[in-house]
Amino acid sequence: MDIPVLFIVIVGLIIALCVLLALTVRLTRTCLKLRSEKRSTDVRRGFMTEQWLPLVAPYPWDPRNLKFLGQPVDGVQFEDDKVIFVEFKSGASQLSEKQKRMRELVRAGRVEFREIRVRLDGKSFDRLEVH
Q1: Is 113 domain-assigned?
Q2: Are 8 and 15 in contact (CB under 8 A)?
Q3: Structurally, how many domains does the chain consist of?
Q4: Rounded Cα–Cα distance for residues 49 and 93 (Å)
Q5: pLDDT one-digit tens code per residue, 1-59
Q6: By the number of CB atoms within 10 A of the CB, which of 28, 39, 45, 59 ranks highest?
C-alpha cells in the first residue's frame, strides 16, 4: 500500500510542477507583452510631446523658427545670431550615440554650411556642384 500512495504523491507533485511551469511561462509572456506595450506607449507619447513642446511658455525661442526633423535630432532652431540643434528628452531618456556624437562635433566647431548647385541638362540632372 505504501507504493501506490508514494506513486500518487509523486504524480501529484509532477502535475503541480507542470502547472506551475505553465503558469510561469504564461506570466512571463504577459509581462513581456506589457513591457513592450508600455515602451511603445512611451515612444508615442515622446513623439507627441516633441511636436508640442515648442508651443509651451517655457520654450526659450520663437517656435515659428523651429524646423522639425525627427531624426537624428528633433529639430533645428534658426535664430538671427545662431543655429541650434534641439533634442527634447523627458524622464530617464538619454541621448543616442549618434546624438552624443553630433553634440561633440558641434562643441568642436566641426559644423559646416554647404551649398549644392544642381546643373540641369535639359530635363535631366547633369551634375551637382558642392560649394
Answers
A1: no
A2: no
A3: 1
A4: 13
A5: 567 888 888 999 999 999 999 999 999 999 999 999 888 887 777 777 777 788 887 89
A6: 59
